[in-house]
Amino acid sequence: MLILEDLLVANLAVRRNLVDVEALRRLLAGLDAQAARVPLARAVHDRLGVELGEARHLHEQAQRKLRQRAEERYLQLMRREPGLDPALLDRLAAEQAQAGWTWALGERLVRQHGLPFARHEAVQREATRQLIQDEARLLEGNRQGQWAQALGRPAPGAPPAPRPTAGLASGLSSSASDRLWASSPDARPFAPPPAAAPDPRGTDPRGTTSRRVAARFDPAAAP
């Protein structure tokens, strides 16, 4: 089983010329066929010889992109909420980007700017719902295309990929790499695999799991 974090790791590994593309394509197919998830960042180290430091870096970069994607979706929805100053949202979004998306926009809006918590939770639930749908759609598109979107090139001998349907990935960039910036649970791919247990954040029936727009402790938002 794969999640979008794995596709993003694959995309980064190819762009950094760390692996053979066809070997990585086979690895993706093999991991996706397994019932239990093996994080790709760990697998490229164990099976394709990527140095441990490079594999950790791939994981960290992917996690940063996933946090960015989740926070940008939350911001996109919050801009539609009545009564919020657009200039305030612009300022906070700029500060958040400068900080590398290490704190949650919703938490700061609640603690510092009087956003009702129930309103924040409703927007967060909608953001999570949309991200789950995006994740499932992108995973299925990659499976059908033999991971061409993640790897940036089709499999040898594969027919040309069909043009994407307008609006297929709502709110996402049209480029293949940008469409991979989606949500995923936080994972520690280099820790020993834990015993199987239900994910308290909920798992989509198709095997994907959305990373919620998680509230991290924000020192600047403390009263």
Tell me about the biggest sheet? none
Identify the overall geometry: elongated
Enumerate the spans where pLDDT stays under 50 for 5 or more consecutive residues: 164-223
Strand residue content: under 5%
Rg result: 18 Å
Order of helices and strands: HHHHHHHH
Task: Let me know the number of strands.
Answer: 0
Helicity, in percent?
40-55%
Mean pLDDT: 79
Count of runs of 4 or more consecutive helical residues: 8
Q: How far do the termini sit from each other?
A: 42 Å
**Which structural class fits the helix and strand makeup?**
mainly alpha
How would you describe the overall organization of this protein?
This protein is mainly alpha-helical and 223 residues long. It has helices spanning 4-15, 21-33, 40-48, 52-78, 86-98, 105-113, 117-144, 148-151. The longest helix has 28 residues, at 117-144. It is elongated and about 55 Å long.
Which tags fit this structure?
single chain; elongated; mainly alpha; about 220 residues
Topology of this protein?
Layout: H1 4-15, H2 21-33, H3 40-48, H4 52-78, H5 86-98, H6 105-113, H7 117-144, H8 148-151
Helix pairs in contact: 1-4, 2-3, 3-4, 4-7
Write a brief structural summary.
The protein has helices at 4-15, 21-33, 40-48, 52-78, 86-98, 105-113, 117-144, 148-151.
